[in-house]
Design goal:
The chain is mainly α and 195 residues long. Strands 1-2 form a two-stranded antiparallel sheet. The protein contains 6 helices and 2 strands. The protein is elongated.
Length: 195
């Protein structure tokens, strides 16, 4: 097995996907976004299964990873459209929090370079309402940070899909050429069974 084989590349991509999914899970927990938390949890499980299938030469697990990758790509396209207000979707809807809480993405108030300022009125300062804090300016707006997360996930997933297809075809070729009696079957040579 070479260092740059399809199997090693898929192991690398699954490891990278696992790290980015855990990072995304942390920020979704901070923002109380329940739908992404559930989907990210499934992503972490499926990537672990894909990683296990790749390491242990189990093509069924890699096929399961392949099928999940298609759903994961669809989810990331949906989230991107949601944050960019495309297709009748709105980033102000409660879809990602499942309508359970009024919380939004953590990046809305804590993005890179965001300056927040409370309202100047003294009558409002005694209120303990987080909605009274306004974000004046950010270096990068929160919806673009979320879309960048989706783009990174899409790129890794598409590469993972291509390499997983290659690995599954390699595993199935290896299964077809091995006859489980410690010799390889060559089509030009008749198989000999020794008992």
């Amino acid at each position: 097995m070479g260092c740059c084989s399809g199997r090693c590349m898929l192991i690398f991509l699954c490891s990278l996907q696992l790290m980015t999914a855990v990072e995304r899970q942390v920020f979704d927990f901070l923002g109380y976004q329940w739908a992404p938390i559930l989907i990210n949890f499934l992503q972490i499980i499926m990537v672990i299964l894909g990683l296990f299938g790749t390491i242990q030469y189990r093509p069924r697990y890699v096929v399961l990873y392949l099928l999940w990758t298609l759903l994961w790509v669809g989810w990331n396209v949906f989230v991107s459209c949601l944050y960019l207000d495309l297709g009748g979707l709105s980033k102000d809807s409660d879809v990602l929090s499942l309508g359970v809480s009024p919380h939004r993405t953590w990046w809305k108030d804590n993005g890179p370079g965001c300056e927040s300022k409370g309202l100047p009125s003294t009558g409002w300062q005694s209120q303990e309402n987080p909605e009274l804090i306004t974000v004046l300016s950010c270096w990068l707006e929160y919806q673009y940070i979320e879309v960048l997360h989706c783009i990174v996930q899409l790129l890794i997933s598409l590469l993972g899909f291509v390499y997983a297809c290659y690995v599954v075809s390699t595993f199935s070729d290896e299964e077809d050429s091995f006859n489980f009696i410690s010799e390889f079957h060559h089509p030009s040579k008749p198989s000999q069974l020794l008992f």
